[in-house]
Design a protein that fits this description.
Layout (H helix, E strand, L loop, with lengths): L21 H15 L6 H10 L3 E2 L4 E2 L4 E2 L5 E3 L4 E2 L4 E3 L4 E3 L4 E2 L4 E3 L1 E3 L8 E3 L2 E3 L4 E2 L4 E2 L4 E2 L4 E2 L4 E2 L7 E5 L2 E6 L8
Parallel strand pairs: 1-4, 2-5, 3-6, 4-7, 5-8, 6-9, 7-12, 8-13, 9-14, 12-15, 13-16, 14-17, 16-18
Antiparallel strand pairs: 10-11, 18-19
Amino acid sequence: MDSPKIDLSTFDNDWYKPGQPLVVRALWYFINYVFFKSAFPFYGPKRVLLRLFGAKVGKGVIIKPHVSIKYPWHLVVGNHVWIGELAWIDNLAKVTLKDHSCISQGAMLLCGNHNYKRSTFDLLVGEITLEEGAWAGAKTVVCPGVRLGSHSLLTVGSIATASLEANWIYQGNPAKKLKIREFKAPKS
């Protein structure tokens, strides 16, 4: 019996439509490179540029240097969201970052994958949502179709292949429930 083989010459993702004409995508790639992937440190112009390219961006959003955003027209960002250095938002589908959510340094939000069960390696896409107060820690990976529940925490280096329940801390690959996320009252 012959073992199955991938045949990348048959790959066809013509069904996928990124949502903007080629000239807009090319302009965004340039803007992304100059203002986001670079060491450009100012948050205000980044928020304005994202809005100009169709993103919905709230107030008080912090976008650190060296961030990559694939398609801003598929991005919804709430108020007081933090996006850390070297974060990669590979949003082939909609990514929603609700109020007070955080993506730490080197975290990857990956809306696309490939179907390893098919020889044609078909593209698969799924939306990602970080609910209010959710935190994707440094060097984490959030996979297509995953939702980080309100105030959930994905710890450093962990991989979320399934949605996380609200108020829980998750760790590992694949991420597993560790314990309830508790908060201390602020000092007065």
